[in-house]
């Protein structure tokens, strides 16, 4: 990876989004010279978040540990199909009542179908527990427009 960063002449964070196919082939989907949505869970789950790591790198400070503190799952909050206009969030209170749920809204005033409006990080003592709660969050929290 250091050679890729040198080739791009980057100082800071280089996010590489990968897909693993059923056949076991590793595909590069996106390269971004910035904090990336695929790593937003690090705010709640890692010793050093991707945001803090980026700042450390560009300020020439020692990099932090990248170990995960706790298992985590991230759910993207997307605008619901058929909804366009001023945003309204349904189910936030119910989700915040669930253990280990961390809601991050991006402050966008308008929603549209499938527009990313925020994310939820679910932390738990095991990955399996986090997945169960994340499924409940996905079923409960909806991004709609004000009717």
Q: What's the CATH architecture of the largest domain?
A: 2-Layer Sandwich
Look at the structure and name the CATH superfamily of the largest domain. Answer: ATP-grasp fold, B domain
Give the tally of structural domains: 2
Largest beta-sheet characterization: 3 strands, antiparallel
- What is the oligomer described by this structure? single chain
**How much of the residues is beta strand, in percent?**
25-35%
**Secondary-structure element pattern, one letter each:** HEEHHEEHEEEHE
Shape: globular
Terminal residue distance: 48 Å
Classify the helix fraction into a percent range: 25-40%
Strand order of the largest sheet: 3-7-5
Q: Give the helix tally.
A: 5
Count of DSSP E strands?
8
CATH class category of the largest domain: Alpha Beta
Mean pLDDT: 91
CATH topology of the largest domain: D-amino Acid Aminotransferase, Chain A, domain 1
Can you tell me about this structure?
It is built from five helices and eight strands. It has 147 residues and is α+β, with helices and mostly antiparallel strands. The protein has two domains: 2-58, no CATH class; 72-145, D-amino Acid Aminotransferase, Chain A, domain 1, CATH 3.30.470. It has a three-stranded antiparallel beta sheet with strand order 3-7-5. It has a three-stranded antiparallel beta sheet with strand order 6-4-8. Strands 1-2 form a two-stranded antiparallel sheet. A hairpin with a 5-residue loop joins strand 1 and strand 2. The longest helix has 14 residues, at 127-140. The relative contact order is 0.17. The model has no long low-confidence stretch (mean pLDDT 91).
